[in-house]
């Protein structure tokens, strides 16, 4: 049975841990608000850009040259090449089930792939998992920091994947990451980025009712690279926002658990202390009665 001294030490230890987790919860909450503001602010632009590309892509169903220099990004890739998958995880732990959830999503999607695949990895935790599972890794973006990421950084990474697709190193490019819905909800996603899917339903609108200036091929050649860069940037923003939402929730749970544990140990401490006092009083009374 634990002594009073042991119980007192445990109370102090749990109290120290509680202070740490509460501080980490406060930091995560602050960063969550900052990244959530960025994510929400960037979403309308991304949605309008997606709608624009979806409308213009209708012109490609009958004429692939309408995409100009970006035509290769709409065409099927090298069928003999492996499937390219960009896996986005976190650099640090203590974020609840954030990493394990995206890892399970990756495993489920890899089980559906018939043929070879290669991973492009962002995040130390994602890389550690890929190495542990012996998954083939084409490139690990070790210096890519989601927390300090800028649009220019996302553009560099997007350009690297687009170049591998153009060169035939991969047949398709998918992104396995976490989509931010709200501070209490974030879902794992597996999206195809390349080749870009065309929407023939918008063909009449794009080709007939729209007046393009400059010409369609010139416009698409300039628009598509910006479109892909924005999709990557938005996905990375949602991933880091989801990470901090998960970390805040995990640290709040740890703080609450420490508080409950501290109460339980304090209760045991008070009982043990009261039992010792009662024993000492009994000994004094017994000694006095013997005299």
Protein described:
The chain is α/β, with parallel strands linked by helices and 291 residues long. The chain has one domain (22-250): ATP synthase, F1 complex, gamma subunit (Pyruvate Kinase, Chain: A, domain 1), CATH 3.40.1380.10. It has 6 helices and 5 strands. The protein has helices at residues 4-56, 98-110, 124-132, 151-166, 203-209, 216-290; strands at residues 83-88, 117-122, 137-140, 173-182, 185-194. The protein has a 5-stranded mixed β-sheet with strand order 3-2-1-4-5, with helices on both faces. α1 packs antiparallel against α6 and α4 (151-166) crosses α6 (216-290). The radius of gyration is 28 Å and the shape is elongated.
Please, how many helices? 6
Series of H and E elements: HEHEHEHEEHH
The low-confidence runs, each spanning 5 or more residues with pLDDT under 50, are 202-208
Q: What is the CATH top level name?
A: Alpha Beta
Summary tags:
291 residues; alpha/beta; Pyruvate Kinase, Chain: A, domain 1; five-stranded mixed sheet; elongated
Quick synopsis:
This protein has a 5-stranded mixed β-sheet, sandwiched between helices. Helices cover 59% and strands 12% of the residues. With 291 residues, the protein is of the alpha/beta class.
How do the strands and helices of this protein lay out in sequence?
Blueprint: H1 4-56, E1 83-88, H2 98-110, E2 117-122, H3 124-132, E3 137-140, H4 151-166, E4 173-182, E5 185-194, H5 203-209, H6 216-290
Parallel strand pairs: 1-2, 1-4, 2-3
Antiparallel strand pairs: 4-5
